[in-house]
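Notebook entry, cofactor series.
This is the third protein in the set we're modelling with a bound small molecule. For this one the ligand is pyridoxal-5'-phosphate. I'm keeping the input format identical across the series so the outputs can be compared line by line later. Sequence and SMILES below, as received.
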Amino acid sequence: MDLNDLYRDVIVDHNRNPRNFRPMPDADRHAEGFNPLCGDRLTLFVKLDGDRISDVSFQGSGCAISVASASLLTESVKGRTVPEAERLFATMHALLTQDDAPVDVPSLGKLGALSGVREFPARVKCASLCWHTLDAALHRQSEPVKTE
Amino acid sequence: MSTATAVPVAPAGALDVQAIRRDFPVLAQRVHGKPLCYLDNAASSQRPQCVIDAVSDYYETSHANVHRGVHALSQKATDLFEGAREKVRRFIGARSTREIIFVRGTTEAVNLVAQSYARPRLQGGDEILVSRLEHHANIVPWQMVCQQTGASLKVVPMTRSGELDFDAFRSLLTDRTRLLALTHVSNALGTIVPVERFIAEAKRRGVPVLLDGAQAAPHLRVDVRALDCDFYGFSGHKMCGPTGIGVLYGRESLLAAMPPWQGGGDMILEVTFERTTYNDLPYKFEAGTPHIAGAIGLGAAIDYLETLGLDRIAAAEHDLLEYATARLAGIPGLEIVGTAPHKAAVVSFTLRGVHPHDIGTILDTEGVAIRTGHHCAMPVMDFYGVPATARASFAFYNTRDEVDRLVSALHVAQEMLG
Ligand SMILES: Cc1ncc(COP(=O)(O)O)c(C=O)c1O
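Returned structure with ligand:
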């Protein structure tokens, strides 16, 4: 196991300077995610323009993996349609959990930096929390999302 | 703080740690290519070879069900099992083995008292008193019994240093208080609670006391008669014994008046469909085939700890605590959470800019095992306004070198993410 594979530069950067880290008072959707085991807690806000995600932001606290993952999520889903975001969720899920997932990592851009997480099973939930939370927000789920 | 002046000198006549480490086969391994540095003893300790041997010898030579057969093996197994009960009795200074009930662990001990002692007695308006320092195992069973009976749960507040507020405790004791359930040592912070004072005050008000001894039994000399507590629970796996075995000590007069908790074999004298006569203590509370091997392993663990000497264990661990506290305090940005003057060898901390979960992962790749998270004490985390801490917890087989490795690994974490 190589730590540098987990904490790649992109991840360290997004942890130190999370993008779109702000509340969104006029959000159309929002959802909360909570990982009770390590105490990661985040709220994800989404603004929709028809079927398109016109803005997305998050707030909360968590480990470097969960903060960087949420930050990268916001950058990558902004401007996408809801079905596109859902497909990306499925892809990320495969990337994080399946050993030989049929994922074209370079096509993911910066999100590909999370591919090292798979080697650290205890950390997979940190990386996927924001994606489950986005899914809940898009589906107007009112119960907070929990990963344990 | 200058670490050079703060680091205390190891006491003379101490335990031979290197010899002791050879008793623990698990400690000899490498993790991610580094020698294992196991600093998660508050979650669960490791086992010496003699405990492992006691369990496997039992299965190889002596296993049969207990308290039933007339045959030789059953007698042998029963003798070993009851022998272990006697060792536990001596270990905690109980009057009689009738007061020693084998359970799965501290959690089950608390649940047994909640359901069998408290539940039949509680009425709406009654109060159970716990403290802010408790492990969830000494909170949730009381919440459940309060829900079942309409009683309410009162909480003794804590202070910034991680101690309990004694004056607040006194004012929370009312004539509706039916039980005080208190931790002896905090697992999240290491605070050694001066339980004697709390017990004396509770007794003055006629309130019985349960102590959660999960973190105390492995590290302090426990004498339930000197403490004058009514119930005392602890877990084998935190004191070099097997998992799945633990002890509930109960004052005989209270146990005798309590109804059984679970029904089944072993806890009865006579069963007809009209009526069942329950067995005597302690069997009344041990329904079904018990964890025989676990009890025997726990007996072996007690023998081992007593051979080393609880006082010498406490001294060795205190030395590690002082050394670790001084070394960790020297790391810029590190804040120790829980600074009571009397602590077991537990250091909870946060590191500026590095989340505890990341500390845990980075330390693991350096071979250093610690616990990160809420330590099953979420109210304690809430008190400090942190979602989690990193916690290093030491046992007598740990060394100052291992503390140094913890410190270097923390520097790695800081360089990487801080
Ligand atoms: C203070 C305290 N109480 C109770 C428990 C629960 O013990 P067990 O899980 O062995 O039942 C623990 C273990 O983490 C503890 O540290």
